[in-house]
Amino acid sequence: MSSTVDVVVIGMGPGGEALAGRLAEAGLRVVGADARLVGGECPYYGCVPSKMMIRAANSLAEARRVPELSGGSQVAPDFAPVAARIRAEATDNWDDQAAVDRFTAKGGRFVRGSGRITGPGTVRIGDEEFIATRAIVLNTGTDPAIPPISGLVGTPYWTNREAIAVETVPESLIVLGGGAIGLELAQVFARFGTRVSVVEVADRILPLEEPEASQVVAEVLIAEGLMVYTGVQAEAVVHDGTAFTVKTVRGELTAERLLVATGRTTDLAGLGLASIGLDTNRGFVATDEYLRIVDHVYAIGDVTGKGAFTHVSMYQAAIAARHILGEDGPGAEYHAVPRVTFTDPEVGAVGLTEVQARERGIDVRTATTAVPSSARGWIHQTGNEGVIKLVQDAERGVLVGATSVGPSGGEVLSALAVAVHAEVPVDRLRQMMYAYPTFHRGIEDALSRLA
Ligand SMILES: Cc1cc2nc3c(=O)[nH]c(=O)nc-3n(C[C@H](O)[C@H](O)[C@H](O)COP(=O)(O)OP(=O)(O)OC[C@H]3O[C@@H](n4cnc5c(N)ncnc54)[C@H](O)[C@@H]3O)c2cc1C
Ligand SMILES: NC(=O)c1ccc[n+]([C@@H]2O[C@H](COP(=O)([O-])OP(=O)(O)OC[C@H]3O[C@@H](n4cnc5c(N)ncnc54)[C@H](O)[C@@H]3O)[C@@H](O)[C@H]2O)c1
């Protein structure tokens, strides 16, 4: 059986859900397909529940700071309210009916199943074939990448999906991967009382961010009692029925649980891209500024390789939807992609790191300022660790990248994101006032050091 529609959206992550809803509201015949849950990774296994965990864990850390600031405190962590909140408020117990209803109320048709392009303009979802006269949109996101470590497959290791769904915290945990997922969750579990070891193969945690950021976060984690091993390759994993042992050249680690957070993977071959003549050997699909892979086929979100973040997916969704509807508007720009790793301190970053800027041949000038030495950092006292780093294109006199680590580092980032996005001249940034005593006032100090 085949049905003719205007648009088929394969995968309804945050961007796909928004785009499909927008096109349906505009009157197009839209079929949205998801193999799992409408909304994707972010609301069910990612951003939203992890940030609820982080909010709760940070409240424990703040309570533990009371003795240094304001008297006495006794902290008795209990994960039960967090698990309950994730079920009741974030994930509806991993039920997407509300999201499906939202989409169908806009006029869309939802099909639960795995979609695959079978040729130009045609998509198969289960037993059904759809002819899409206007567009096919891919928003299939990523799955956890499982490294080829001897003995790992077949053990009851966690990915982010199992870690988000826990009801009690383990006594001990090994986290493979010191990136965003690994560190956010490592700190949460440690603050709830789990003995946590992080094993990162690169020579520093958060290797994609500025080294200054990696150093601040590593120092905080170690001070909180986590073990952080960098430059360490896991060679084998053994699970004896109760505990995991991870073997490395530097010795063995043992823990009740193992979280694998070593990056993400896409299944482009499974999407049938070869049927329209596209290479599926790369980990992502190349898109033009309107998110087209080829005429009438669009891709948005993590699969585009432009930053695996919900805000990237949503930004691209709005541009692709406009283009499909034939509306005018600017194409996508990626010179100021913001990102925040919600460790405490938060690591906010935008645009290029110093190394990336140098690799592009930019005439780089950088400056850093330590948050504890700012007025606000000094007032804040305990929990004030952080750094602001600016990356300037000296020839053009604009910032091309910036990092703000610290309390509310993700909020401090907003001013820096505007500066990088709008290419505000550094001289002009120096002429403005920065409210006293805010954390973002550190930007003014860093700017003065660029001179
Ligand atoms: C633990 C964690 C924390 C995160 N925290 C943040 C954060 O704080 N901020 C942030 O910006 N980002 C965060 N992210 C990243 C964010 O979740 C993703 O970037 C975001 O979900 C956007 O992904 P997407 O739109 O590409 O699709 P996804 O959310 O990955 O969804 C893709 C959907 O496609 C479906 N699908 C796949 N293949 C098919 C197919 N063939 N047919 C039908 N359906 C298919 C899947 O079932 C899924 O529902 C986090 C991720 C994780 C794992
Ligand atoms: N706050 C946020 O916005 C947020 C939070 C979580 C995830 N995310 C998104 O999800 C993406 C995926 O997160 P992630 O943490 O899985 O990936 P990542 O790429 O950020 O980090 C993976 C880490 O694992 C390390 N690694 C790889 N193989 C390893 C191995 N065999 N042993 C030990 N370490 C190994 C890498 O060097 C890297 O540091 C992120 O890049 C980000 O885009 C965003």
UniProtKB/TrEMBL annotation:
The segment(s) forming the FAD/NAD(P)-binding domain are 6-317
Q: Does the keyword Flavoprotein apply?
A: yes
Q: Does the keyword Flavoprotein apply?
A: yes
Record Pfam families: Pyr_redox_2, Pyr_redox_dim
Its required cofactor(s), as named, are: FAD
Residue ranges of the Pyridine nucleotide-disulphide oxidoreductase dimerisation domain? 337-445
Q: Which family does it belong to?
A: Belongs to the class-I pyridine nucleotide-disulfide oxidoreductase family.
- What is the official name of this protein in its record? NAD(P)/FAD-dependent oxidoreductase
Source organism of the structure:
Kribbella sancticallisti
